[in-house]
Task: inverse folding
């Protein structure tokens, strides 16, 4: 079961903000606009050596426009939370940021040799495929 508190932690939401740690509370935070800082935080965690990674989630021109409001749109927040959810599970499975990154950025045979991170960024359905692979690894099935 997904720990929504873990996703909130990856997004950098304040630990004291109990509402953001429940499923409905996190959905509400996303709908009302996650802080722009959450994008920078997730990009730094997932791809620390890639300054351009955040622009795969939010195009650069849009990112520049968002600086004024300091908030992401609901769609951007949903995409970001999707990446945070997968990152959180990858960390849980691999117990190491380096190994979680290696999994996400290395082609995987169960997704036609695509990189899991690319599949996650592509769509919610892609994220579910990667989550299934991680679940198989976590619970001992072949992946």
Result:
């Amino acid at each position: 079961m997904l720990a929504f508190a873990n996703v909130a932690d990856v997004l950098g939401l304040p630990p004291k903000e109990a509402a953001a740690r429940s499923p409905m509370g996190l959905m509400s935070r996303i709908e009302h606009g996650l802080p722009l800082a959450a994008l920078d935080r997730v990009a730094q965690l997932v791809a620390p050596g890639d300054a351009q990674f955040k622009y795969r989630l939010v195009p650069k021109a849009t990112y520049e426009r968002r600086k004024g409001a300091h908030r992401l749109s609901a769609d951007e927040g949903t995409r970001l939370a999707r990446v945070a959810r997968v990152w959180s599970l990858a960390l849980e499975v691999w117990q190491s940021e380096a190994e979680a990154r290696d999994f996400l950025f290395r082609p995987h045979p169960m997704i036609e040799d695509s990189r899991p991170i690319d599949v996650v960024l592509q769509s919610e359905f892609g994220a579910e495929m990667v989550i299934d692979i991680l679940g198989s690894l976590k619970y001992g099935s072949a992946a």
The mean pLDDT is 93.
